[in-house]
Amino acid sequence: MKKRVVVALGHRALGTTLPEQKEAVKRSAKSIADLIEEGYQVVITHSNAPQVGMIHTAMNEFGKVHQDYTAAPMSVCSAMSQGYIGYDLQNAIREELLDRGIFRTVSTILTQVTVDPYDEAFYTPTKVLGRYMSAEEANQERKKGNYVVEEPGKGFRRVVSAPNPVNIVEIEAIRALVEADQIVIACGGGGIPVLVQDNHLKGASAVIEKDLAAGKLAEEINADELIILTSVEKVCINLGKPDEAKLGEITVEQAKQYMEEGHFGIYNMLPKFRASVEFIEKREGRSALITSFDKLKEGIKGKTGTVIR
Fold this sequence. Notes:
Strand order of the largest sheet: 3-9-2-1-12-16-17-15
Largest sheet: 8 strands, mixed
Number of strands: 17
Distance between the termini: 21 Å
């Protein structure tokens, strides 16, 4: 039996602009191909923070100068970002595999993730996105019912909620492809957030933490390991202090302790540790690896990275 893993790619693995993304996915594809050569079954998810902000801004600006068009809701922007990133990523992985003499189908699944309408996050939006706005533009956003926050000296920016993922709508399609030994890209950007209304799925004005969605995806496909690729080789505690220390292999209990002690930023390492712990606790024998994408090959061999068991 092949070892099944979910790999979550962070911003560094994707770049920001179109040219950056084209180059970044080539490097990321090499890391994914290394896993395939090692005999892993791989499902990939990814960040979309710069991309979805860019799309959201572009669609809003387009709507301002074309009266017949409206601004695109967050759910639509999320869907666009999944297609935009998935297109480049799947082609880069396909090309890298073919260059190594490996033929495998790579598919991007447009993935919706349900959220709870009563999630506390909807009452306290905190995720910043999009361009800086003037005070007048910010007031217009507030009149639409949107939340805006001021960054002193820079201007105003839109903020949205970040609710927890509940269910992955297309999970059966993802499982079918994985069982067919195909490479799957799913839950991009945390998934398209939707609310269940009888048989209707309504897009939610929110974004989902991609690490939490990655953990949910790993759980739902019964993965053996969750791999979260970020900007650091190993996670540190007491960051920036004299007693700063890099974490190697730790237990779930230690991970929980570090979270409770507040070592990790709310939108930085904390979701990665929370996703890892929740995934591991669902079944015995699971593990999680947090490291940089250029150290993945060494990480899966136990030579580096922060490993939680």
